[in-house]
Design brief:
By secondary structure, the chain is an alpha/beta fold. The two termini are 33 Å apart. The structure holds 1-O-phosphono-beta-D-fructopyranose (F1P). The site of 1-O-phosphono-beta-D-fructopyranose has 17 residues, from helix 4.
Length: 358
């Protein structure tokens, strides 16, 4: 394919990105009738702390899931890379039986994730749920229970719909735990909306990428949106081999803003609760000469005036519902930027589908 833009719709990566709205609806149907979800929640009733674990994209998912968990259920939660459990098991030892662990892995075969699940269950005696997209995996064997989203599995190396679908699944668990069925109804309505809008969104991002040449990329988000900023930076790195960073939006003033120029693409994941403060940073970075992408549910006239590209979701309900759809424009940004550099999205440089260690 070699970056021939006319051929990109033939790539697996494109098809997986564009399938998301539809796949999310299948995932919601699957979860509604899934006995494991009920078992997981009733067995975890006495747990004080939820710990979400993963590697790479699955770790950034863990971060977004942990903060979503606390904001939706009010319960303490944290995220930790699988490697930390292997190198510093004492970090969790003190928590003991009060912990409910969730190990996330698309493939269910990543060595660090599988080994972490074994350490959690066997060495630390911590109850562990696996979340994966592949059936009959090593993760499934290593965990006490496993939720497998086959509809979201991928052939691509770069994780797109697996990220969004596994995040949505953990949000559904949180909503069930919080007895908030309206949140799950909102996710369904959002999924239908994204399925309808995905071609228009892709055209918008394709035009933006074609009209700019950037030296580096910055992704900014606060609270649960920070995990998205990390994942977006990874998507642009993986798919386009570009230099890409992430920060909490208000942290960007404290030093990192030194890099801002018109060749810096700054993407803001605007929250609803913190939008006023985040929008002030956005306007400041525009004044410093940066090129601004604003991803929001709804924006103000001021945000629109300071932004070079505005993507508005216009979803109804809790702002946690924005997490899953917010990442899609950045998956497309990575995809089109890679194509513009002549890269093949299905064969990203130096990457493999799974990281398996000896
Ligand atoms: C995680 C992961 C991806 C990365 C690469 C290799 O895999 O590290 O984040 O993009 O493709 O795998 P998994 O544990 O979720 O299968």
């Amino acid at each position: 394919m070699n970056g021939d833009q006319g051929q990109y719709t033939q790539t697996r990566t494109w098809n997986e990105i564009m399938s998301q709205g539809r796949v999310w609806q299948s995932v919601l149907d699957f979860l509604r009738g899934n006995a494991t979800v009920g078992e997981v929640l009733s067995s975890a009733k006495t747990k004080r702390l939820w710990v979400f674990v993963g590697c790479g994209t699955s770790f950034y998912l863990a971060e977004a899931a942990a903060l979503s968990w606390t904001l939706l259920t009010g319960q303490p939660a944290r995220a930790i890379p699988a490697s930390e459990i292997l190198l510093f098991p004492k970090l969790l030892e003190a928590e003991g039986e009060g912990v409910q662990a969730v190990v996330i892995s698309r493939s269910g075969r990543t060595s660090e994730a599988v080994r972490a699940a074994n350490v959690l269950t066997q060495q630390l005696g911590i109850s562990t749920i696996g979340i994966s997209c592949a059936k009959d995996s090593e993760l499934e064997q290593a965990s006490d229970r496993c939720i497998v989203l086959e509809a979201a599995n991928e052939e691509s190396m770069v994780m797109t719909r697996s990220f969004t679908s596994m995040l949505m699944t953990l949000q559904v668990l949180a909503a069930r735990q919080a007895e908030a069925p309206e949140f799950i109804d909102g996710l369904r309505a959002m999924s239908v909306g994204v399925a309808q809008r995905s071609c228009a969104l892709a055209d918008q991002m394709k035009t933006f990428v074609a009209g700019h040449k950037f030296s580096d990329y910055v992704f900014l988000g606060q609270g649960p949106f920070h995990g998205l900023a990390r994942e977006a930076a990874l998507k642009v790195m993986e798919m386009s081999c570009s230099y890409s960073q992430f920060f909490h939006a208000l942290e960007f003033r404290h030093g990192p803003k030194a890099i801002v120029s018109p060749a810096t693409c700054l993407t803001f994941f605007l929250s609803e609760s913190g939008q006023e403060a985040e929008a002030e940073v956005l306007a400041e970075m525009k004044e410093l000469g940066g090129t601004i992408v604003a991803i929001a549910n709804r924006t103000s006239a001021d945000i629109r005036k300071s932004s070079d590209l505005v993507i508005e979701l216009e979803a109804q309900g809790d702002e946690m519902m924005l997490l899953v759809p917010y990442i899609v424009p950045c998956q497309l940004m990575g995809f089109f930027t890679g194509l513009s550099k002549g890269l093949n999205p299905d064969a990203p440089k130096n990457l493999s589908h799974v990281v398996i260690l000896d």
